Amino acid sequence: MKLHKEGYVTIIVAFVILLALTMGILFELPSILWLQAVIIIIPLFVYFRIIFFFRVPSRLYEEIEGAVLSSADGEIVAIEEVFENEFLKQKCIQVSVFMSPTDIHINWMPVTGKIIYFKYHPGKHLIAWHPKSSTLNERTSIGIQLKSNTDILVRQIAGALARRIVCYANIGSTLKQTEEIGFIKFGSRVDIFLPLGTQIDVKLKDLVVGGQTILARLN
Known about the structure:
Elements: H1 8-28, H2 33-53, E1 67-69, E2 74-84, E3 90-99, E4 106-108, E5 113-121, H3 133-136, E6 139-145, E7 151-158, E8 165-167, E9 174-175, E10 180-184, E11 188-195, E12 199-200, E13 207-208, E14 214-217
Helix pairs in contact: 1-2
């Protein structure tokens, strides 16, 4: 299993902490075999769950012209018309993908385009499917301009457990559809804001695959 680079430090630190805790508890406990086994199994389970969280999926990616691909693995939790007042400054369609702690947490480019806007916002850590998390939680906003001069916005949102958002997008760079644009640790959400009139190809509660599932088709 291939591990993502964003997990290396976390995995090493978790190993040291869990090993120290386990050894300390075992040293204090009486020599009861079944109890010692439980104390060893629980940290092992936690450690391998952390490793599993940072896994990199083995997938074939293909650019699909005119399509907006999902930026994340997860569940569709919102499809609604909203007024986006940070970058697009107009009414648009918001499609939101919630990533549970068991999902892949890599984020991908939904379209091929030029990064023309980026901003990091400190904020709260509400549960990621909460409607207000899009504007109140810690987040990054990434403005993308397509070759057709259509603009869309991708927003990475930290959830209740997430404490670090990583974004690789730099203003002025052109990134291809399905390229990695970031990573969010331990439960989060991605919102994509699209022009009104965009054909939406998913519905609420659909499970989507990052870099592969078509969310919408641009006119």
